[in-house]
Structures are given as structure tokens and as C-alpha cells.
Amino acid sequence: MVRLLAAVLIIATPPVPGPVVAGFQPPTSAYGPGHRGLDYAVTPGEAVHAVTDGVVVFAGTVGATRHVSVRLADGRLVTISFLQTVSVRRGEVVRRGELVGTAGGVDPLDTRYDGSRLLLTLRVGGVYVDPSVLFAPPDLPSVVHLAPWTDRPPATAPAATPPVPGALTLLALATLVAT
Predict the structure, then answer these.
(1) What is the residue-wise DSSP string for 126-157?
(2) 127 and 48 Cβ atoms separated by less than 8 Å
(3) Is the separation of the CB atoms in 21 and 117 below 8 Å?
(4) What is the domain extent for residue 40?
(5) Which of the residues 4, 5, 7, 103 has an alpha carbon 20 to 30 A from that of 32?
(6) 130-134: Cβ within 8 A, 24+ apart
(7) Are residues 126 and 78 in the same domain?
(8) pLDDT value at residue 176
(9) Residue 88 sits in a domain of what CATH number?
(10) Tally of CA atoms within 13 A in the half-sphere of 47 that contains its CB
(11) Could you tell me if 84 and 170 lie in one domain?
């Protein structure tokens, strides 16, 4: 018997093409000072896109500002803040690159968010972490596995050079396990 074990690989892209103008600065404590995300330069009215696939768990206003939060397949939570408009609803499935709103939201309590910035945050287990990890190359050892080839392929496989006993075969994003 052969089992297929699949790994989750999440591909992400920034919500807007603008440059990052303020980076992540971890807070000193749960409520301490720091910058809990990435700020992107934006033009008011500019399209804002889903960073990756997920389910919208919040879409609306908090105080005077608009936000969209998306739960990823691996449980992480991505939030895009200071939107001018929101174009998705809670419970909706979004795909990477799909429109979630427009940039240009203003925070009357924080002069940094004057419509020219967008905030992207990432939480893991309720803790803010640097969202730039979303855009890093995948950790290949966690998604690519080597498995010993100990048997010939099934008769339905195309004719090929028979495998050498004990040779390793590279399988991207999955591992075949012979039992």
C-alpha cells in the first residue's frame, strides 16, 4: 500500500504594490510599545487585495476605521487595516489577489494613518508576528521530503528506467510512504 502525505504550502503576495514605509517592531509586552505590522504606502482609492487564500472572519469598522481579517488554512490570522471601503463579508472565502477593499482609510486618533498608509498584521495564536514571513521563500525541508524507493512503480505507470533499489526520489510537496 502507498499513502500520500501532503504538506500545506501557503503562497502570499503583498496587498498593494506600494513600498513598505514602516516595518514590524515587536512589542515589549502584550500591551507595550511597538509596531505590530507592516505599513505600505498607498494612494487613496487604490485596490487592496487578499494576501492569500482564506476565510473572512471580520470585515467592517472598529471605531472610525475599516478592517478585514482573514483566517488562513494553517490557522494564522491576517488583518488589513485602514481601508476606505470593504468589499468582502464575514464568512466569505477569498483567494490570493482577490479585491477586499480600497486603500485610503483615515484614523482620527493616529496621524500616521491619514489615508496614505495601509497596515498589514499577522497573528499566530493571538500573538503578533512579523508579517514579512508570509512573503519569504518556503522552508523547503518542511514541504519537500525524500523517501527511499523500495519497490517498482505500479504496472500502470509509464515505462521508465527501473528504479535502483535504495535510490532516493524527490517528491515536491508530498511524501510517498510504502507500507
Answers:
(1) TEEE-GGGGGSPP-HHHHEEEEE--SPPPTTS
(2) no
(3) yes
(4) 13-27+34-135
(5) 103
(6) 130/23, 130/24, 130/26, 130/38, 131/24, 131/37, 131/38, 131/78, 132/23, 132/24, 132/38, 134/10, 134/12, 134/51, 134/52, 134/78
(7) yes
(8) 40
(9) 2.70.70.10
(10) 7
(11) no
Residue 82 and residue 168 share a domain: no
Q: What is the pLDDT of residues 146-168, one digit of tens each?
A: 777 666 665 565 554 444 443 33
Q: At residue 5, does pLDDT exceed 70?
A: no
Spatial contact of 85 and 102, defined as CB atoms under 8 Å apart? yes
Percent of the chain at pLDDT exceeding 90 = 61
Whose cell is 521508465? That residue is: 160
Q: How many residues appear in the chain?
A: 179
CB-CB contact of 83 with 62 (8 Å): no
pLDDT of residue 56: 98
pLDDT in tens, 16-69: 999 999 999 988 888 888 889 999 999 999 999 999 999 999 999 999 999 999
Answer yes or no: do 151 and 107 share one domain: no
Residues paired with 127 in a beta bridge: 124
